[in-house]
Each structure stands twice: as structure tokens, then as C-alpha cells.
Amino acid sequence: xxxxxxxxxxxxxxxxxxxxxxxxxxxxxxxxxxxxxxxxxxxxxxxxxxxxxxxxxxxxxxxxxxxxxxxxxxxxxxxxxxxxxxxxxxxxxxxxxxxxxxxxxxxxxxxxxxxxxxxxxxxxxxxxxxxxxxxxxxxxxxxxxxxxxxxxxxxxxxxxxxxxxxxxxxxxxxxxxxxxxxxxxxxxxxxxxxxxxxxxxxxxxxxxxxxxxxxxxxxxxxxxxxxxxxxxxxxxxxxxxxxxxxxxxxxxxxxxxxxxxxxxxxxxxxxxxxxxxxxxxxxxxxxxxxxxxxxxxxxxxxxxxxxxxxxxxxxxxxxxxxxxxxxxxxxxxxxxxxxxxxxxxxxxxxxxxxxxxxxxxxx
Length: 363
Known about the structure:
CATH class of the largest domain: Alpha Beta
CATH architecture of the largest domain: 3-Layer(aba) Sandwich
Structural class: alpha/beta
Number of domains: 2
Order of helices and strands: HHHHHEEHHHHHHEHEHEHEHEHHEE
Number of strands: 9
Shape: globular
GO molecular function: methyltransferase activity
Protein name: Class I SAM-dependent methyltransferase
Radius of gyration: 23 Å
Organism: Billgrantia zhangzhouensis
Domain Methyltransferase: 178-287
Keywords: Methyltransferase, Transferase
Largest sheet: 7 strands, mixed
């Protein structure tokens, strides 16, 4: 019956042609992201940032890379209209408009985000097994994830931490100057905490993360910086609702960390438990609807659902968790914040960040 019904549906050849064109375009644009990721990690983009024309040999010398690979990369970048090529002089140039978006010379380095697709591709076989048998992919399989997340945070959190994020709770800057207790959960490599600890030496800072690699990196970096008011600890937060010290912290922060927890509601209940009565919880998390149809116009919706499948949902399920997923959305967030016991719930968006919401929560 189903096959017969499908056979009677009219086939729209224009729609098929449009999707075919879109697919070919997506293949090329996805390949450009791979080229950008390679160029970001290898230093090619940094060396092209001055906008001066160079030959492949000159660029290879500047970067210390193999000329044959550099030349082939330049070929792909030329075809992608990423760089400009002068066939008379056999030189290549990164336009300043591209350099402003793909190097550290601009307001944000978008090349950082190009790393996500090749990074996720490394675990495609693992994720495919989860489609077939359930379960998830553990953190240990993502060899560079915390490195890339630290760069990501450098685009969305660090540049506006003092001027835009902390002032969402107007009393925080002065309280930090006077000296309070601060906890960052899912801290990764701890770059936000390091900036806070440097700026506010009278306050005391603690960071927890599940990743041994991330905590090790953060601890060594903090020691080199001489930050005696900062402590990092590897910790599973699945039971934080029971193990969180009661009324111990004045400020708790999470930066894109709730949605990939094994038991996010337990973590939120623990945050409420550990906050003092005049405390503040600042949460950065993905801007989305909790309903698929509500995300149709999301400017990064396809990417974020893909990240959810390939990482955030999967690492939660690998711990026997809920698998909340990247796109849990505002509606589900409000529900969970309410269940956790927060009495005051505010949500904001900041102009520089189309990807995230910024929540201010109080007991």
C-alpha cells in the first residue's frame, strides 16, 4: 500500500535539480572548511595575514612546511576563492577582508570553527555504531576537543567576559573586587577562570571538568601564571546534586556545559544547592528552540544538530546519561532551571554571539 501510494506522488524535477545544485555547493563549501582548518592549524593563514603576495616556495619557507603540500593547498584555496592568484607572477594573496575573518587580526577568527567538522569526522565510525546499537562515544575518543573548545571560548567568552557577561548581574564586578568564592563547572582548559583570577586577586576560583587532559593543561598553565587563588580538579558531576557543598559559592558559571552533561538536572540542582542565598549563577548555553520546527530559521541550526549527534548528545549517553543534546532549547532550559529551584530566571543575547544565550539565575 505504501509503495503504491509513493509511486503515485508527482516527482518535482525542479526540486530535485535545486537540491542537486545545493548538494554540490555544500560539498565544495565543506571542502573549503577543511582547507581553512588545515591552514589555521599549520600557520598558513597567519603567514598570509599581511596580505602580501607570495609564491608557494616563499610561503613554504615562512611556515616551515613542505612546498608540495603548500602548493596544492594554494590550488584549492584559489579555486575556492579563498585566496587571490596572479598567474603571471605565480603569487598568491589573502585579501584583507578574508584575513579579518580568518586570522587573529580581526574581531573574531572564524577559522577556529572550521575545525569542528574534521574533528567530528574522526569519530564517525564510533557514532555509526551508536546508531546501530545505542550508547555513546566517550570523551577520551575526542583527542583535540578541549583544545578546539578553548579556542571557541576565546571567540565568544573571553573578549567580552568583563565588559558584557559579568555586568549581566550588575553587582558582580564590585563583589569580585572585594573577594568572593567562584566555581566554574565544565571548565575545560580554564581560560575564563584564569582571566578572572588575574583580574580579581581577592577572589577565590575553582574549576571542575571531567577531562583529565583539560584539567592537567589548566593546572600547569595556572601554575606558570602564578595564580595562587585558582584551583582545578578533575570531577564527574553526575551526582553534584548530592555532593555539592551547601551554600559554599557566591558565583557559579557554566559556559556551554549543561547540555552535554550525563545528568544535567542533577548538576543544576547541585548549583542551586551550592549557591549562597545572595549568589548568582551565570550560564552560557546554546540559543535554540526545544522544538524542531522552531529551529528551521536558526542561522547555525544544521551545524549545531550535527555537533549534538557527533559529540554533545553522544558523550552524555556514553556515561549512561540523559543525552539532552546541544539543541535542548530555551523552553527545556526554563523547565530545568525551575525544577532545580531557581526563583529568578533571566535570559539575554549578546550582539557578538548568535550561537548562545546568556542566563542569569538567582535562588
